[in-house]
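Support case: user asked for a sample of complex input and structure output to validate their parser. Sending the pair below.
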Amino acid sequence: MLAILDTAVVHGLQGELVRVEVDIANGLPSCSIVGLPDAALSEARERVRSAIRNSGFDYPLSRITVNLAPADRRKHGAAYDVAIAIGILLANEQIRASGGPWALLGELSLDGSVRPVPGVLPMVATLRDAGHRRICVPGANVAEASLVEDLEIVGVEGLDDVARHIAGPHGRKAAAARRRRAIRIARGAEPDASDRLTPGDATELADLRGQEQARWALEVAIAGRHNLLLVGSPGAGKTMLARAAPRLQPPLSEAEAREVAVIRSVCGLVTSASDQLSRPFRSPHHTTSYAAMVGGGPRLRPGLVTQAHHGVLFLDELAEFSRHVLDALRQPLEDGSVEIVRAHGSVTYPAELQLIAAMNPCRCGWDGDPERACRCPTSEPERYRRRVSGPLLDRIDLRVVMPRLSADEIVSLRRPERSETVERRIHEAWTRSMQRNDGVPNARLRGQQLLEHCALERATRMRLQELAQGLELTARGVHRLLRVARTIADLAGAGVVADAHLAAAAALNDRSFEREATA
Amino acid sequence: VNERDAWIALASTPGVGDHTFARLLAVHGSASLALSATARLRASHADRALAGWTGIRLRHGLARAIRQAADDPTRVQRAVAALGGWTLTPLDAAYPRLLAVIEEPPPVLYGLGDPAAITEGLLVAVVGTRRPTAMARDLATRIGQRAAEADITVVSGLALGIDGAAHRAAIDGGGRTVGVVGSGLDVPGPAGNRRLADRITRHGAIVSELAPGVHATKGTFPRRNRIISGLARATIVVEAPARSGALITARHALEQGRTVLVAPGRPFDPRISGNLALLREAPVRPLIGLDEMLADLELEPVDDVPAPPLAREAALRSLEPTQRRVAAALASGPATIDALCRATELDAGVVSAALTMLQLRGWASTYGPTLLPAGPLTRMDK
């Protein structure tokens, strides 16, 4: 007998419909899965057999054939387990389906419980578009799946649960009592701290003493989503400052939240409902590989640049990242997306990220420190800084050098502003800029938009010219100055960019990366 | 052959160093005789004979190089002229007298710019590390500026760091400066100083003892330092760690019997340990202030030469209120933006904007994360 169920696979950030067909025929007991399954999927056989038995059903001793259509699309992951198991039970007539066809998602545990799977959000959206109105998803994925509207989401905890739902009120009652619950693995194990999109332990700005300029730079950076580079000796507070970013970021708009939720879903990063509107903050270690940064790998997983979509990508020890990885950031920083092309097709992942980077001024870390001597050879600091290529540096609007404070300075300084206060200013500036720019952050203003939203009065234009000449700015540098000045004006609540905003913006572009020449 | 041409031809021959040159001169009596004697040697024995004359180890090909130089004695001078430069030898009356009396004066000085810069007026060397602290850089700037005001020519090595700061300050202050380089005049020095080199040729001179086309090697810089101290009546060591080239210059200056002024620093600070060692072990004078510096140079202090106090006040008044506050805070010495925020109790954004404008006007310059007072601000009393 034949059973047909629907499920889905994720390709890029899109779901695609997969039809599971199960046929049971006479013959030697066997189970074969066809339709380009990968290793994890082939192993579904074993999981499904145990899960069926341990849920109080019988595993049919017949010749079982499972086909995943379309046959030419490679399938991966374990999200089909539930569909396969239910397909076997239906084909074996152990349960009967009321209505249908059914759409099911979920991975099975050997004890028959249903485990969450990544990518539920886009998969559910696809199934809805295919006409389904009721979808079974793992209980731990319900919150995520519920983001898709016009659907009845059925959260299930175990295979028997699924059977009950499928069978409807008249179906056979599953022998739930017989199910062994002994080895239930915690479902949807909490992602570990390093994998969290928004760390709960964000720095409170009031705890960071001194660094008036760097704090202000961070405020400007976040209010306009400008990329920011912090340079300073060890202990200057670069990392601590950057870690204040998550709290300061303005909330996501609804459309943005939906995009972010899809990415979180595909990456299998489970987030609580309260995190739904918070922007991501990713801080990978400097040994991060190319594929992990831009995305890809054999199964085309979104990279960190995509995971930081609409949020912050914080790269600590920027110069220690491999050159290869850093240069790969250029396209996402420029286009806000990253296209990954493989022999069997291409995927474009969104990557509207804001880069916050921190690095030492030289290898030993003490170049320019007022207290300690740098031990690097004379030309080393410059070589070290040049590990960050010009084109990448060009895309970083704000560059700030953070001097280290001496111990008595730290003690004597008065307690600075709290995150809350800064956050409020940022949100106001953000709202203002979003209304004016039609939803484009200041950092993304280009060409005509830039000229329109940063229109200057005549006297201010003269000042801009003076600055451009005095600081020897390139055309790109002038645009950068304008964008940053726009954000500074927004923070000040000014409608028009004024002289002071331009001059202040110029100070946020530290030129120690250029040669000594102009001193 | 004209003796001066022969002199330059022999001295600029590759392989003829100061020692070889001096020995050949001593053996033959003059450069032209040395050239003609070398030319008369049989090719097979020439190198050996030269080694005999000079008492320096045998070097193959030396005789041939000298003979080529003798064939076209004005080749190097034409190359110098093509660069727009000039040459000076001890044969010339204009050869700096202070330099002529040192041990091993350079046989030829190749120069760009104004030769009067090394022959006239009072020259003082300002030397130090290529990677100074902000404080030292500020000091070098103040010294250069005060020197310019007192009509002193600043001599230095056209290196990054202290050298560059001293040269720049001298030029910016309207004075003259001399850069002594350790390679041929047409061989570019540090990339960061190319524009400075151009400016020096317009406000002084760049000189070298090496012929055009000769590249710097390990030994050329220490040897060059004897010319820096030799041209100057006094040498000022601004900031030197142990084993710094600036210490070699100071040692040359002491051997040449010149005054050496050394800026004191904090004990134990490795970045200035060279200065401290000099102060402890050598007959040098500590540099404790710019007026004292001029006194040590046996000059009248020139505190009325800079903008008189009234003009300074007027200059400060020309600034907007916030700029004035920031400028006043900066006048007391190098500071970070953060320190200026605290000193003025203004927001980082306001201070930043003020600093940008001060920089544009030449009242401040940056050095890494540190702001340095510049222009009118360096003339304000601390």
